[in-house]
Design goal:
421 residues, Protein-Tyrosine Phosphatase, Chain A
């Protein structure tokens, strides 16, 4: 397949999968005519909620008849998910054509996989100068390939927490350092900061961006939301209060992401009306983010029980996920797989009142932790077992009427499950 052949070549252009630097992508983009200087962008940085915030913004903008380009990572099922132009994913042939053109211009110069993907995105996005680009930062932000824009419409800071500490030296594996990496080089435009897990985290963000001359909009200080009725929630900012229908995505944390999306669009004052917001938040795409699986091979195994896939993989994600589970009055069973570089014990410690935990392997990722080793790390949890496959894991769990089954721990693991389903 032509697309897969090109992607395999991309992965051989640099000896490291990740090599934090801006020099290579700047050099390639210069050869491409600096396409990043020709687009209108909303940049989204943070640890958790980036993708969900982008999807909420995208859904609202579409209701307002805006055309968007969207760049996110990682993909779940197909790399095409990362390349949305004029509100549609590029098909395989068009994506392969784009990659081939950029590959030829790069001329086999060393560049990481993510960098050449990002350059390809910018190159294509410049063909749609009137579109709004929604761009998700990759690892951290300061030396991330997406951080070569000279200006943007806004920078959104989603929830920040400890993650990817293996890319930091031992004495710098702190939330303060992570926030510095994510926010210290934000552009001077508008900065919208989502709800954070603690006052200390929010204060650290405020301190880090204090000298940035952007207009700043903080959760609680300038916008907020509340839930007073089961079918509605309320959003409020300086422009007034909105009564909104509950979105089509699960979890309290999604209300935080959606509120941040609304705050961003109302800050930009680009003609978004209340009805655009009301309709948009009921049509949000959410792949592997508290996604309920309603049909397919694996759904058939759980029969009438609810099956949910969530790719959360750090302590912030675990905390938000447990808050959702605690809102449910039923028995909860977890099937979990994780990458080796995550804080496994800390992740699982956030889950309370879990009926069973089953560990499995991520078969497609050599850098994952084996399900057997993960089980050993979860010895503090009751009813922990290992199973060699997702099907055997599901069949081994004694699901009673009304029980819920959650598959979590990794976006890579979620991708395997969704592909199998």
């Amino acid at each position: 397949m032509r697309l897969q052949k090109i992607l395999s070549h991309f992965q051989k252009l640099h000896p490291k999968e990740i090599d934090l630097s801006l020099n290579r992508i700047k050099n390639l983009c210069k050869k491409l005519g600096n396409p990043q200087d020709k687009i209108k962008a909303i940049s989204v940085v943070g640890t958790n909620g980036k993708n969900s915030t982008i999807n909420a913004i995208f859904s609202i903008l579409k209701e307002a008849n805006f055309n968007c380009n969207v760049y996110t990572s990682p993909h779940i099922l197909r790399i095409n998910e990362r390349f949305i132009f004029d509100n549609k994913e590029l098909d395989d042939d068009k994506l392969a054509d784009l990659f081939e053109e950029v590959e030829n211009i790069n001329d086999n110069k060393p560049i990481t996989f993510f960098e050449i993907l990002t350059a390809s995105y910018f190159y294509k996005a410049a063909q749609y100068p009137k579109n709004i680009n929604l761009i998700e930062a990759g690892l951290f932000h300061r030396f991330d390939a997406t951080n070569i824009l000279k200006e943007n419409l806004a920078s959104v800071v989603s929830s920040c927490s400890i993650d990817h500490t293996d890319w930091l030296s031992k004495n710098e594996q702190t939330i303060e350092k992570i926030i510095f990496e994510k926010t210290s080089t934000l552009l001077n435009s508008n900065i919208i900061v989502a709800k954070q897990s603690s006052k200390e985290t929010m204060d650290c963000i405020k301190k880090t961006i204090y000298q940035n001359q952007s207009d700043k909009v903080f959760f609680n200080d300038h916008f907020s939301y509340s839930v007073n009725e089961s079918d509605f929630f309320y959003y409020e900012d300086k422009l007034g209060k909105l009564k909104l229908p509950m979105p089509n995505v699960l979890g309290q944390y999604q209300l935080e992401n959606i509120s941040t999306a609304i705050a961003t669009l109302r800050t930009l004052n680009i003609g978004i009306k209340d009805e655009h917001i009301q309709r948009g938040i009921t049509k949000i795409s959410s792949l592997a983010r508290l996604q309920e699986i309603k049909s397919g091979k694996l759904k058939e195994l759980v029969k009438n029980n609810k099956l949910i896939i969530d790719g959360s993989h750090n302590e912030g994600g675990a905390k938000a996920l447990n808050e959702y589970l605690q809102s449910l009055n039923c028995n909860k069973h977890i099937i979990i797989s994780m990458m080796a570089n995550k804080e496994h014990e800390k992740y699982i410690s956030y889950f309370k009142d879990i009926s069973s935990v089953t560990t499995i392997d991520i078969k497609t990722q050599p850098n994952s932790i084996s399900g057997r080793d993960l089980k050993k790390k979860f010895k503090s949890m009751p009813n922990v077992q290992y199973q060699p496959s997702i099907e055997k894991a599901i069949k081994s769990i004694n699901l009673k009427e009304g029980d819920i089954l959650l598959i979590t721990g990794s976006l890579y693991g979620a991708a395997e499950v969704l592909s199998l389903n």
